[in-house]
Design a protein that fits this description.
disordered N terminus; 332 residues; alpha+beta
């Protein structure tokens, strides 16, 4: 009996057993290939490239280059841009953790001011405890034009208080330079609508990070430069759109809302402002970035009651996977 067992082990598998194993393997591999093919075919088509008419001045402002290759932008949905957005999200969270203050300033045009340091004397300058005070400060001490950043506090309730399509997020940090605020990074979010029939109809959306040049210069009188970002082009939600009116309700606003401390309710300023005075301890923001995986920026229904803070941003639900809750003063 023992000899028979040893002999069986020496002989290994029979030809019939090998044939059965190979047949089963072929069936399994075939099933995997078919399943993978179905998954691939169910995915959206690969993003096409759109030649977006960004002029040399705007390219220089956005990307510190006039290279026309930066006009080439992937059309949404773009999973290549999505990967870049994920990397930028990680960097943004890292920057916020390292920050002493975060100030969001709304814009209607391009951001042409990207300082590494901002003059500030705590003995004479006002306390910068709101974005509005920060805006007033840079206008006064740095000569920034009043038209560059809007005096925008939060989205309005009526069309008389329109949302702003762009925003600059100033992330301040610790500094060893006496008499200055240190700008760790600036994040610019720009959503540009193209409406001319001579241009591709839709939106060029981009999120860009500006930081120190490699081996930053000595002193404080230098500017931050483009370091990372992503961009994507959204076609109109209406695939038959041929003019501006055909996608007039498309858009991506608000890019942020600001929740102020509830103690500010001691000063009544009207429903538009007072409805956001709900923060129990520290003020904070909700911030939204355009999602490269979205197909378009078509309007979404707003189901929140008028006069509530949710009414300002309820329609942003489900439009992007890039939403942030950011404290105004992370170090506190």
């Amino acid at each position: 009996m023992k000899a028979a067992s040893v002999q069986s082990l020496r002989h290994g598998f029979s030809s019939m057993e090998l044939v059965v194993v190979l047949a089963l393997s072929a069936l399994i591999m075939g099933g995997i290939v078919v399943s993978y093919g179905n998954l691939v075919r169910s995915q959206p088509l690969v993003a096409s490239i759109v030649d977006v008419p960004l002029d040399a001045k705007r390219l220089s402002t956005f990307f510190n280059t006039s290279n026309s290759e930066y006009r080439d932008t992937q059309s949404a949905p773009s999973y290549g841009s999505l990967a870049e957005a994920e990397k930028l999200r990680e960097q943004f969270n890292h920057d916020v953790i390292s920050a002493t203050a975060v100030f969001c300033l709304a814009r209607s045009g391009d951001n042409t001011w990207k300082p590494a340091y901002i003059p500030y004397d705590p003995s004479t300058d006002d306390e910068l405890d709101t974005p509005q005070k920060f805006r007033s400060h840079i206008i006064r001490v740095a000569g920034v034009s009043e038209d560059l950043y809007r005096d925008f506090r939060n989205p309005g309730i009526t069309n008389k208080e329109p949302n702003q399509p762009n925003v600059s997020i100033f992330i301040l940090s610790y500094t060893g330079q006496s008499g200055f605020l240190r700008v760790l990074a600036i994040y610019d979010i720009d959503v540009i609508r193209f409406t001319s029939t001579q241009q591709p109809l839709g939106f060029h959306a981009s999120v860009k990070r500006y930081a120190d040049p490699k081996g930053p210069p000595d002193g404080t009188a230098y500017s931050l430069i483009y370091s990372a970002g992503y961009r994507v082009f959204y076609p109109p939600a209406n695939p038959l759109a041929a003019k501006e009116a055909d996608f007039s309700t498309d858009g991506f606003t608000p890019l942020y809302v600001t929740f102020e401390r509830y103690t500010r309710l001691a000063l009544r300023e009207g429903t538009t402002i007072d409805r956001f005075k709900v923060a129990a301890e520290r003020p904070f923001y909700f911030i939204w970035w355009p999602d490269p995986a979205a197909r378009h920026l078509g309007a979404q229904p707003n189901t929140a009651a008028p006069g509530t803070p949710q009414n300002a941003y309820n329609h942003m639900a489900g439009r992007t996977a890039f939403m942030f809750t950011v404290p105004m003063f992370p170090a506190l």
